[in-house]
Amino acid sequence: MALSYKARRRWSLVILLIGLPAYIVVVISLVAMMGDLPRWVQLPLYVVLGFAWIVPFKFVFLGVGKADPDADQPPQG
């Protein structure tokens, strides 16, 4: 089932305001539990994990920044 434009906008807001901070806390906690890693390991690990949250939510964010395709278009004059 495809989400409507309004639903995608709402879900993207929830993901960015609640999900992303929670994900950041979890990632930092997990990396801290790994022990004292060298910086050359930490940097690529944080970069990969920083982009990993996007993959499952890509379909939610597609087209959210554009105008609502279902809205009535005002006459162009």
In percent terms, what proportion of residues is strand?
A: under 5%
**Unreliable segments of 5+ consecutive residues:** none
Helix/strand order: HHH
| DSSP summary: helix tally | 3
Coarse structural class: mainly alpha
Regarding quaternary structure, what we see is single chain
Protein name: DUF2842 domain-containing protein
InterPro entries: DUF2842
Keywords: Membrane, Transmembrane, Transmembrane helix
Transmembrane segments: 12-33, 45-64
Key words describing this protein structure:
single chain; 77 residues; mainly alpha; 3 helices
Describe this entry's structure for a reader.
The structure is a single chain. It contains 3 helices and no strands. The chain is an all-alpha fold. The protein has a domain of 52 residues. The chain is elongated, with a radius of gyration of 18 Å.
Short précis:
The chain is mainly alpha-helical and 77 residues long. Helix content is 66%, strand content 0%.
List the helices and strands and how they pair.
Layout: H1 5-33, H2 39-52, H3 54-61
